[in-house]
């Protein structure tokens, strides 16, 4: 069949990853729960808020890298808590220094504390500076297809439109915009923010997203470690369903068994 999809590796900045689930490291009860949940998720890429988490900038304090060693995980520093381009660029440069020249970063520039919606104007400014500075930029953005296109044109290696507002667990609020982004994008598209449960992650993957990034959906679950494992399976199921191609939707019933050759 001409429309059969064949899988392709999930690649970022020249590296190939087996897991298509990226997870955050905040909001857990303690470092041990963080470690156990991320192990259960099967994630290979973990994102770290440099402004909120110690990865070496505060000597003498517990260091996240002691439980999530860079030899095992790809650390994805992010600019959570930044509200303008200058702050975001400074934070990425600090992360590169702390991680010995590590260039892979997640850019997010927020508009306000209430919604944590991305400030796309400042995001575009920061992306231009960071790309020119040699960073491999994965970028959190709105679900506006035009902004997603501009960020890719600037040179971001992946665009990460929100499914819903950060921490809300509302799932994919605007699948139509996300579908346009997926159809147009020439770089990987990852859903970021708004996932609440396993079915949300599966739907994102069924739509054709390369991967999903989440934090609150796991960390705020009643059983975070169990939810992390659920998310691992949800991502795999969604990817397989995308590749398999779903049956067409029909208004009326269609018999499961053949109608031809019935005994009369």
Topology overview:
Elements: E1 10-12, E2 15-17, E3 21-24, H1 31-41, E4 45-49, E5 74-78, H2 85-98, E6 104-107, H3 120-132, E7 136-141, H4 145-154, E8 158-161, H5 175-184, E9 190-192, H6 198-207, E10 211-214, H7 216-219, H8 224-244
Parallel strand pairs: 3-4, 3-10, 4-5, 6-7, 7-8, 9-10
Antiparallel strand pairs: 1-2
Helix pairs in contact: 1-8, 2-3, 3-4, 4-5, 6-8
Keywords:
single chain; 264 residues; alpha/beta; 5-stranded parallel β-sheet; 10 strands; globular
Describe the structure.
Helix content is 35%, strand content 16%. The protein contains 8 helices and 10 strands. It has a 5-stranded parallel sheet. A 3-stranded parallel sheet has the order 6-7-8. A two-stranded antiparallel ribbon has the order 1-2. The protein is globular. The mean pLDDT is 93.
Instruction: Give the number of DSSP strands.
Output: 10
Largest sheet: 5 strands, parallel
Which consecutive residue ranges, at least 5 long each, have pLDDT under 50?
none
Radius of gyration in whole Å, from Cα? 20 Å
Distance N to C terminus: 35 Å
Order of helices and strands: EEEHEEHEHEHEHEHEHH
The chain-level mean pLDDT equals 93
Oligomer: single chain
Shape: globular
Secondary structure: helix percent: 25-40%
Strand content: 15-25%
Count of helical regions: 8
Q: Order of strands in the sheet with the most strands?
A: 5-4-3-10-9
What class, by secondary structure content? alpha/beta
